[in-house]
Each structure stands twice: as structure tokens, then as C-alpha cells.
Amino acid sequence: MDKFEKTNAQFEAAIAECRDIFSKKLHDYGASWRILRPSSLTDQLFIKAKRIRSLEIKQESLVGEGIRPEFMALINYGIVGLIQLEKGFADCVDMNVDEAMTLYNHYAKEALELMKRKNHDYDEAWRDMRVSSYTDLILTKIERIKEIEDLGGATLVSEGIDANYMDIINYAVFGLIKLEK
What we know:
By secondary structure, the chain is mainly α. The chain has 6 helices and no strands.
């Protein structure tokens, strides 16, 4: 197995673990996230990434949950963000489990395909990065999303919110992979 095949397999395993959590939460809560407006979803991503950074700096969790579940949440909320961009937010839950999982799988596959293309061009550079760098890059992407939201999406040369969600998902997957070691 070459290095790219290894990365693809690790990426798919990480997404499978996140998908399992997403599916179980869908069972418990339904697609309650459908009511999240874009700014609320951005803030949810923000608190997850800030918690990771806090735990990285403090090296201690008083809640008892570590960094790994937060990276998983960033992946799942990133995919929720992509779904919300496509569907818009709703005033009530308007999506069943099957539709939510179909959309989840679609965007997980898109994230994998983007990662493959970027990983080819960057030649596995992510493997030599620190996990804390992924955290900082995720926080940067979230700040960019906030700016784009504040501009009403009217950017001049920048990627859209969807590209930032994809990058958040991919950096979070890299974090999960690196934490496995």
C-alpha cells in the first residue's frame, strides 16, 4: 500500500467512525440541527475548535472528554454545514434519517475526493504538521466563514463558505489520524 492509499484508508476509517456517531445522534435527536441558522452553526464549530485549542494549551480537561471527540464533532458539524448550505435552515425538523444519511454520505465522499486531490498536490505535507496547527487552521477557517457571513456572501476573490467547511472537515480528519498514533 503506497502512502496515498494509506491516507485514503485512514481517512475513510475516521469518517466511518464519525458517520456512526452521526447516525446514532440522528436516532436519538432526529435532524434537530436543521433549525440551525448559518451563524449558529458557525458558532457551534467555533466552540468545538476553541475547546480543542484550550485543551491543547492547558493539557487538562475538567469535563473528562478529550480532543478526539471534538475533532469528530467538527467533522460532523462541517458536513451539517454543507447540508445546510444546500437545503437552507428550517423552522422545524423537515428531514428524515434516510435523507440525512444520504446527504451525509454525499458530502463525506466529496470531502474525501477533495482531500485526495489536495494530498496529491501537497504530497502528504499534513503528516509533518502538528495537530495544534490543524486546530489553528480550523479556527482561521471559522473566522473566514464569519467574515463571509458578515459580508452576506459577497466576496471579491475568496473561496466560499463551502470550501471552508471542506477544509475544516479535512483538517479535523487529519487531527483524528494523527491522534491515533
